[in-house]
Write a structure and sequence with these properties.
The protein has 317 residues and is α/β, with parallel strands linked by helices. It has twelve helices and nine strands. Strands 5-4-3-6-7-9-8 form a seven-stranded mixed β-sheet, sandwiched between helices.
């Protein structure tokens, strides 16, 4: 079966077949897990189920796999395999569910962070500036605040912090001020409402880059992505067996910096701690160097161009 067949779904409204999501660095990430046939593995970003299917192909009868996803849409891709358990939850609750399923230790964990092609191509979810849909952006659309809630209720200073910290936008204060002035006249509801406010701040030649960063900042805030990632990394270290593998694919510098620092030093600030003899005090050891997609992969799958794959192994005490 061709890899793309794993990600196909049907748009019944427009009566056409869609690709749910094509994961970046697919082969390299599975290789990084160093899968043992009888091992216990966790795919914390199940999505279209591609990584999970690849792991199951490499597992034996005694192996087990847990797939996490908080998005109701991902449930259409649940794998029918007795070795697989689907967990309807955010991965920040990893430890709770592993304890519930009586799994004390795991052999490997994979996280393919960011937003899926399915989300970006669905106008109703509000993740993309290409469509005039509701300003939602929730990965879990069954609860929680929406992007519209953030824009309509956050104080101006907090909005500026979100745009600067998560979108790395230098003019964040001016944008936040414009957002507040607009909502005083009329609340934000649709993408077009937001684009109207952002137009004066984006230069034509850099418009897409600017909008991508701004929408990224809102999405990160709505879904508490950075907090969830920190919690996931800390829990993964506690759960991994000795020599267990942690595999993470990131798509922007904020995520990658956090993952890189944690894999190298065991903390998010990147502070290198050493014992009396100069040995690095970290629970993980990076495996190889960062991996990026080949030119061929980015040509076949343009959304993979910003992907970075990092692998680490739990150090034996």
């Amino acid at each position: 079966m061709h890899l793309l067949d794993f990600y196909r779904c049907v748009d019944f409204v427009n009566k056409k077949e869609l690709i749910y999501h094509i994961p970046a660095l697919y082969g390299e990430s599975l290789e990084g897990l160093k899968i043992k046939p009888s091992g216990v593995y966790v795919d914390v970003t199940f999505g279209g189920g591609g990584h999970s299917r690849g792991i199951l192909e490499r597992l034996g009868k005694e192996g087990r796999l847990y797939g996490f996803d908080q998005d109701a849409d991902a449930e259409m891709n649940i794998v029918d395999d007795e070795r697989f358990v689907f967990v309807r939850s955010n991965f920040r609750y990893l430890s709770n569910f592993m304890r519930y399923h009586r799994e004390e230790r795991i052999d490997g964990l994979i996280a393919d962070l960011g937003v899926s092609s399915h989300h970006l191509d669905d106008a109703l979810r509000g993740f993309s500036f290409r469509f005039d849909g509701a300003l939602d952006m929730r990965m879990n659309n069954r609860g929680g605040q929406t992007a519209a809630d953030v824009l309509n209720t956050y104080p101006e200073e907090k909005l500026a912090d979100v745009f600067f910290l998560y979108g790395e936008l230098r003019n964040s204060h001016k944008i936040a001020s414009a957002v507040v002035r607009r909502r005083e006249r009329q609340p934000f509801r649709k993408t077009s409402d937001l684009l109207e406010v952002l137009e004066p701040f984006s230069k034509k030649e850099k418009e897409k880059r600017f909008l991508a960063r701004f929408f990224q900042s809102l999405r990160i805030e709505v879904n508490l992505e950075m907090q969830s990632l920190r919690e996931l990394l800390l829990q993964s270290v506690r759960l991994l067996k000795e020599d267990g593998r942690l595999v993470v694919i990131t798509y922007h510098s904020l995520e990658d910096r956090l993952v890189k620092n944690f894999m190298k030093t065991g903390n998010f600030e990147g502070h290198l701690l050493q014992d009396f003899y100069g040995n690095v005090q970290s629970p993980l050891r990076p495996v190889g160097k960062v991996i990026i997609p080949s030119a061929k992969e980015t040509e076949d799958n343009p959304r993979a161009r910003s992907a970075k794959l990092r692998v680490a192994q739990k150090i034996t005490p």
